[in-house]
TrEMBL record:
Pfam family, one: EF-hand_5
Protein's recorded name: EF-hand domain-containing protein
Domain EF-hand: 56-86
Source organism of this protein record: Novilysobacter avium
PROSITE patterns in the cross-refs: EF_HAND_1 (PS00018), EF_HAND_2 (PS50222)
Taxonomy, superkingdom: Bacteria
InterPro entries: EF-hand-dom_pair, EF_Hand_1_Ca_BS, EF_hand_dom
Amino acid sequence: MLPAPPVSETLIVAEVVEPEVTIVSQHPDSIVGEYHVDFAAMDTNDDGVIDAAEASSNPTLTAEFKAVDTDRDGKLSKAELKGWTR
Ligand SMILES: [Ca+2]
Ligand SMILES: [Ca+2]
């Protein structure tokens, strides 16, 4: 049996110690998510739009927020979420 090289193990551990939160702004004009959102449930303050804070409860929507927010006003209207809502 070969002696296990401890070096490689150390390297692997070092790489996974800090998981990076990667929210990449990729493909800003494409919506790749395949899921539906419950608009009324997400609009917790009931103002008719989903803001970033409300969208934060949905990681996928947060990732796609800019792509969904077609008029770039920082909020998602029902029209913008058309096709995403049930
Ligand atoms: Ca709202
Ligand atoms: Ca908008």
